[in-house]
Amino acid sequence: MLEIEDLAVDLPRRAASAVLSIAGCKSRTLRRTLNNRLGAPAGMSGSLVAEPVLEGAYPWRLHPDGWESLPDCVHSDTGQALQLRMSYPPYAHQVETWALSCKPEPASVIVSSGTGSGKTECFLGALLNHLILASDGGRKMLTGVRGLMLYPLNALINSQQERLSAWLSPFGGRLRYCLYNGLTPEGPVAEAERRKTPEQVLDRKALRVSPPPLLVTNLTMLEYMLVRRQDASILEQSRGLLEYIILDEVHTYVGAQAAELALLLRRVALAFGRDPRTIRVIATSATVGTGERREQEAQLRQFLRDLTGADPGAVHAVIGDRAPLNLPAETTVDKVAGSALAHLSDETAWDTLASTPQLQRIARRLHRGERIRWSEWRAIAQGTLAGETEIEQGARALLAACARANALTEGRHFCLCGSTYLSEPSPGCGLAQIGPVQGDRVLKPPPIGRSEKYFWTDVTPATNAAHPF
């Protein structure tokens, strides 16, 4: 588990050092003063970093009957491949996505679910099912692009290499993919390298000769592919075959970039010889949609309709849900020593902590998506642990115990069930190296002779003076 001191003490110091290195102030006195102020422990006045906050990481709601009741449109070989590659039973939002995207009539789906909820498997399952059906159960080699996976960053493209190889390698090169970005070599790649990974097309020459059914790329390379003469063979051999377009991290497409993507998707459909309304688009994001669930679903569907031009009835929104808490009845329990928490088994930790009223209230807030500041958690620990416990150490021990406390026989999880530490920008703290006026803020310089530059660690509204060093 991440130590709170590392986040609350070391991070502000390192951030302050980096900022002051960029600022390049030559005065040692000024540099030392700013370093002490900006590098103060997280949450203190002037610190670059706010105090840490806790965010619950609860399990996701499972599909009721596991692998035994996948949708009829999912091929049996697809189900076996999914079960082999996924180390957990399918989540409800994954199965719902597979059911919607694998239906005979074209449908587009936008999936909104948190980090670690298996969003990648949502579209990989749909893609794999289509490829298995098109290749007679993986026995026939496929040529021509049937699925486009679009990513905003090359790093995200490269991150899919290991996963795609694991999913497609059992088919012996009959189902292939290519990571197509600016780093893809012209080729040809040595034959020995090709034999190591028959499921991956490694160079542009091989891509143009025999396009694989899965092409992973970014918007820039896709633009080039539509207009470059040397890439024309990819489009010719894929004409009429494109079935899926995957938009991962779709929340990154906003404003002008979203408008460009909307136009690009329509051009892609025409270049591949398809009606844009018949291409199945699967978009995923952890952060699209606000408000009540119905509002979120409406926003998600509207966003995908605007982006793809799909018919309203053919666009669906899938939102991942956390598994219910299922806490025991509240009871008053004796305080426990912080030093004893580390020695509790998972089930004993559940029996000791799960019925505590204070911790149940925190658990429900975290389950709703609220964030808890470390100062509040420390106060909870002070009221929960025996008086001789050192509070900072005890708060960390209580956090670790709550994160692993569960009743395995009942399938229940308490409190954090894994935890994430976040840090937010500290309010009221900004480093300025500016003149006396910035926008609607009046920054009054001190009455000294030279006033070319000032450093402020707090920028206040125009009615007050800033606090210069």
Protein model, in words:
The chain is an alpha/beta fold. The protein folds into three domains: 12-52 and 427-456, no CATH class; 73-319, Rossmann fold (3-Layer(aba) Sandwich), CATH 3.40.50; 327-422, no CATH class. 40% of the residues lie in helices and 12% in strands. The protein is built from 18 helices and 17 strands. The protein has helices at residues 4-23, 28-38, 76-85, 92-101, 119-134, 154-158, 161-168, 191-196, 204-209, 219-227, 232-238, 255-271, 293-308, 338-341, 346-353, 357-367, 374-384, 391-404, and strands at residues 53-56, 108-112, 147-150, 177-180, 200-201, 214-217, 244-247, 280-285, 315-319, 371-373, 406-407, 412-413, 419-422, 432-433, 437-438, 441-442, 455-456. The chain has an eight-stranded parallel sheet, sandwiched between helices. Strands 10-1-13 form a three-stranded antiparallel sheet. Strands 11-12 form a two-stranded antiparallel ribbon. Strand 4 (177-180), helix 8 and strand 5 (200-201) form a beta-alpha-beta unit. Helix 1 (4-23) packs antiparallel against helix 2 (28-38). Residues 418-453 and 459-469 have low confidence and may be disordered.
In a few lines, what is going on in this structure?
The protein is α/β, with parallel strands linked by helices and 469 residues long.
Name the overall outline. globular
Proportion of helical residues: 40-55%
Low-confidence stretches: 418-453, 459-469
Using the CA coordinates, give the radius of gyration: 27 Å
Task: Return the average pLDDT rounded to an integer.
Answer: 83
CATH architecture of the largest domain: 3-Layer(aba) Sandwich
The CATH superfamily of the largest domain turns out to be P-loop containing nucleotide triphosphate hydrolases
Q: Quick one: how many beta strands?
A: 17
Number of helices: 18
CATH class wording of the largest domain: Alpha Beta
Whole-number count of domains? 3
Spatial gap, N to C terminus: 39 Å
At CATH level 3, the topology of the largest domain is Rossmann fold
> Major sheet: order of its strands?
5-4-6-3-7-8-2-9
In terms of DSSP E residues, the strand content is: 5-15%
